Amino acid sequence: DAGITQSPRHKVTETGTPVTLRCHQTENHRYMYWYRQDPGHGLRLIHYSYGVKDTDKGEVSDGYSVSRSKTEDFLLTLESATSSQTSVYFCAISDRASGATYEQYFGPGTRLTVT
Amino acid sequence: DAKTTQPTSMDCAEGRAANLPCNHSTISGNEYVYWYRQIHSQGPQYIIHGLKNNETNEMASLIITEDRKSSTLILPHATLRDTAVYYCIVRGQTSGSRLTFGEGTQLTVNP
């Protein structure tokens, strides 16, 4: 399995509080992604990074920010958590963003509950 | 990227072949077909991909029709551990970083 860890694995927080989720990889892959998964919506891309300090928005980026100061770490921050952000969050990595062979490797997920 | 259509759910007996269909009638010439699966509560896992030729690896086989408008993922000898949601994704080589997951097919392998 690809070396991807996510922390915390479970978190319960209150509406209005800031929350930071961490994704850590040991594969030295250039690209990193944050997805959320909700019933009826499949996985949706929040933000992604194509290098240190290089990030871009996905399809559901409102209310989220990201940072990548090192190759191995990609942080997802909810500045002021809302109940609609209750979800399972997955981090993924890949060593390329184009071409025929394109695989993303996923972490174990973080279950976030906002009360 | 082209849209895909998959059945919501399928059942398969343990030890038998599981054949999971996917329709992608709007696929264009430079788009690949990818399959991922997600076992309950885990992150998705890459299975296989192809362009127009049939492909096989240690996990599965991918059969793509000649007109490329549909494909079938085959798990030759399904086990209980293959119970998962299977996602068919069509992606172009220049689609950047986007993998668009639909709802997939819930495959249940029964003993």
Give the strand order of the largest sheet of chain B, numbering strands 1, 2, ... along the chain: 1-9-8-3-4
Low-confidence stretches of chain B: none
Report the total helices of chain B: 0
Biggest pleated-sheet summary of chain A: 7 strands, mixed
How would you classify the quaternary structure? heterodimer
Shape of chain A: globular
Q: How many beta-strand segments of chain B? A: 9
Structural class of chain B: mainly beta
Low-confidence stretches of chain A: none
Structural class of chain A: mainly beta
Commentary on this structure:
The complex is a heterodimer of chains A (115) and B (111). Chain A is an all-beta fold and 115 residues long. Chain A contains no helices and eleven strands. In chain A, strands 2, 4, 5, 6, 9, 10 and 11 form a seven-stranded mixed β-sheet that branches. A four-stranded antiparallel β-sheet of chain A has the order 1-3-8-7, with no helix packed on it. Chain B is mainly beta. Chain B starts with 8 loop residues before the first strand and ends with a strand.
Characteristic key phrases:
heterodimer, A: 115 residues, mainly beta, seven-stranded mixed β-sheet, four-stranded antiparallel β-sheet, 11 strands, 0% helix, globular, B: 111 residues, 47% strand
